[in-house]
Design a protein that fits this description.
single chain; 266 residues; alpha/beta; Purple Acid Phosphatase, chain A, domain 2; 7-stranded mixed beta sheet; globular; binds fe (ii) ion
Length: 266
């Protein structure tokens, strides 16, 4: 069994400070094998926001795998946005924008979908696809292959279309690269689902763990437990005005013949 804590869109610079300590406390109580943050570590990519994000990440149960989101590139400083969009991210988080994390039975590959040439939508670059293919092809048989990208190539929970260039081609590329699971954020709405157009790939999204930039009024994160042929997504929610997180719905997925099926909701 592998336990992954999935957080996203923590947006330092627009954090609900009341939730920081309860979230860190919950993270340690859940005892994950690793923590994943699927982008938007900051609100405006300012150095002090990255410093606060770094300090928070250093307190999470590790190892921690992060990728950049669209908010992690400067928005108003156009020279920096175009010349070195990820310089501040790298200074805080290290040089690698697309880290790999290997656990017993699973491999996670980060993908940088943030695109400085547009306002906020994402892109899957050919170099990222090649890296996914290399990482997933070199994993031993039976390994769960997990891609982590900020922008999800599937519609949001409310039906808003995927905020990515050519999402259908992205889904196909992820499937062909061998991804079993794709973890994303960006919409600030939790959502799990099986895209019918990408047989075999399970797309899991969380909203924002601790930011005040809410779409649903509720902060959330997820604990994903991976078994041999079964996966459980436990949602943890902080409803409006709550000062902490409580257990939300749990969804179970089973896998047969390389395809996921929803088993139960509770
Ligand atoms: Fe965000």
């Amino acid at each position: 069994m592998i336990r992954l804590l999935h957080l996203s869109d923590i947006h330092f610079g627009a954090v609900d400070e009341r939730l920081v300590e309860p979230m860190l406390d919950l993270a340690h109580r859940l005892r994950p094998d690793a923590t994943v943050i699927s982008g938007d570590l900051t609100q405006r990519a300012r150095p002090e926001q990255f410093a606060a994000a770094r300090a928070f990440i250093d307190r999470l149960p590790g190892p921690v795998l992060c990728v950049p989101g669209n908010h992690d590139m400067p928005l108003y400083n156009l020279v920096l946005r175009l010349a070195a969009p990820f310089a501040r991210y790298r200074r805080a988080m290290g040089p690698e924008l697309e880290p790999t994390l290997t656990l017993p039975g699973a491999v996670l590959q980060g993908v940088n979908t943030a695109n400085p040439l547009v306002w906020k939508s994402g892109v899957l670059r050919p170099s990222s696809t090649e890296r996914l293919e290399r990482t997933f092809a070199s994993a031993p048989p039976g390994t769960m292959r997990i891609a982590v990208l900020h922008h999800a190539p599937v519609p949001a929970a409310d039906g808003t279309p995927a905020d990515m260039a050519d999402p259908s081609a992205v889904r196909t590329a992820l499937m062909q690269a061998g991804a079993d699971i794709v973890l994303s954020g960006h919409t600030h709405m939790p959502h799990t689902g099986i895209a019918e157009t990408s047989a075999g790939v399970l797309f899991l999204q969380v909203g924002t763990a601790i930011s005040s930039r809410l779409k649903t009024g509720t902060n959330d994160l997820a604990l994903i437990t991976l078994g041999d042929s079964e996966l459980t997504v436990e949602s943890w929610l902080s409803p409006p005005k709550a000062a902490g997180f409580e257990a939300g719905p749990t969804t179970r997925y089973g896998r047969t013949l390389a395809a996921w099926q929803k088993l139960t909701d509770s």
